[in-house]
Design a protein that fits this description.
mainly alpha; 69% helix; two-stranded antiparallel sheet
Length: 207
Amino acid sequence: GGVPLYLSKLFQHYISLDILQGDGNAWILDHNLFDIYKAPDTLGEIIIDSYNSLDQQRKDILQNLSIFREPVQVDEFLSFLGPNDNFPHAIKDLINDNILCVDKGFLDFPNPMYRQIIIKKLSSTKRSKLNSKIADFFIQYYPDNAIEITHYLLEAKNIEECMKYGIKALSILCDKRQYHSAFELSFSLYDLARSLGSRSQQIQFVK
């Protein structure tokens, strides 16, 4: 982290912009491009510049991945994205550009800042749709993972399904004696029902 990470990403960023070019023996600096281009002051600015320079398909891939709370298996993520022959190549390019990384078959961002910055760039409507899409994915492939399903449904503000899986999630947490997490989840569920004005769901949940 810190300065070494910033310098590493800045170096990679210069390469992607052709400001730095390697000939196999040494790195060559394009002074014209270097004089024109203002170096980002922070790692966050480098990430934003890298993201903004991508085409829409690669942005869509990063947006989808940013909503997942944990690293996801590459094959499962491709299945989640849907049939498109370009996706594997696009993901490979993102990995080669150090925007994504793979560890033991699981796809993730190399730094948490990537996820945080990309999520902030999404509209609330877009975030809600992506969370709903991931919830549907978990319901189809991991129907017993009520805790994860409830989290995504909460973010999607899908109150009917959220209450259904939320009760199951609370039961799992209590069985595991994770009472603090159960309390936080119960508060989130009640708060969602209240914020959406669903009096009947509030009463049902309290019961």
